[in-house]
Amino acid sequence: MVKFEQIKGFVFDLDGVIADTSVYHAKAWRQLAEKLGVTWTDELADGLKGISRMDSLDLILKTGGIENKYTEAEKEAFAAEKNTNYLNLLKDMDATAILPGIADFLKDLEEHDYQLSLASASKNSPLVLEQLGLAMYFKNKIDPTTLKHGKPDPEIFARGAEVLNLKPEECVGIEDAKAGVQSINGAGELSVGIGDKNILSEADINFADTSELTLENIKKALD
Ligand code: BG6
Ligand code: MG
């Protein structure tokens, strides 16, 4: 495995790692799923984490056995409706939505001269970072509209290292989604999974929540 001294950069997921926004995504998808008659389950909620807007809609329709029921134009309209629901939920969001320990961790990384990039599938990530007051940390963002493949494909995390001019093995990827951990592993970076260890069993390092995410704990896990 990678040595702690080898690490030069950190590639972050956003929703569910930096901020509590995965809850808002789930709420907005649930509104749409139930309107379409698709039963909401924890399994569906987990499967939706990390994947793109249209992949999410496809998974919901498939789960309900209605993947062939709608035209592309209707699907576009559903995706737009979900995004409107999501943006409404984001309206009053501020720095209080930053997950525990993340603000200190980002400060610590900057003070220790680590490089940072963002590998979020969300087209709303610039807005979210602005509202959280964290945009200054992420000058290196991957624009998800330029990707050929979504998570779990390695493309987004590979690009996260490339924009920092670092080799994958010099980077740590941080994720709360199974698809995201698979993307980090495929890119050849050290994967840190935040959340349920059973779901994120493929991660190199597991933390139960973001308050455990510190340089010291990463070093400890690698020693
Ligand atoms: C990911 C979220 O970060 O972004 C998913 O985990 C979301 O839940 C995806 O569907 C796409 O986000 P957006 O904001 O472009 O619809
Ligand atoms: Mg996430």
Automatic annotation (TrEMBL):
<protein>
    <submittedName>
        <fullName>Beta-phosphoglucomutase</fullName>
        <ecNumber>5.4.2.6</ecNumber>
    </submittedName>
</protein>
<comment type="similarity">
    <text>Belongs to the HAD-like hydrolase superfamily. CbbY/CbbZ/Gph/YieH family.</text>
</comment>
<dbReference type="GO" id="GO:0008801">
    <property type="term" value="F:beta-phosphoglucomutase activity"/>
</dbReference>
<dbReference type="InterPro" id="IPR036412">
    <property type="entry name" value="HAD-like_sf"/>
</dbReference>
<dbReference type="InterPro" id="IPR051806">
    <property type="entry name" value="HAD-like_SPP"/>
</dbReference>
<dbReference type="InterPro" id="IPR023214">
    <property type="entry name" value="HAD_sf"/>
</dbReference>
<dbReference type="InterPro" id="IPR010976">
    <property type="entry name" value="B-phosphoglucomutase_hydrolase"/>
</dbReference>
<dbReference type="InterPro" id="IPR023198">
    <property type="entry name" value="PGP-like_dom2"/>
</dbReference>
<dbReference type="InterPro" id="IPR010972">
    <property type="entry name" value="Beta-PGM"/>
</dbReference>
<dbReference type="InterPro" id="IPR006439">
    <property type="entry name" value="HAD-SF_hydro_IA"/>
</dbReference>
<keyword id="KW-0413">Isomerase</keyword>
<dbReference type="Pfam" id="PF00702">
    <property type="entry name" value="Hydrolase"/>
</dbReference>
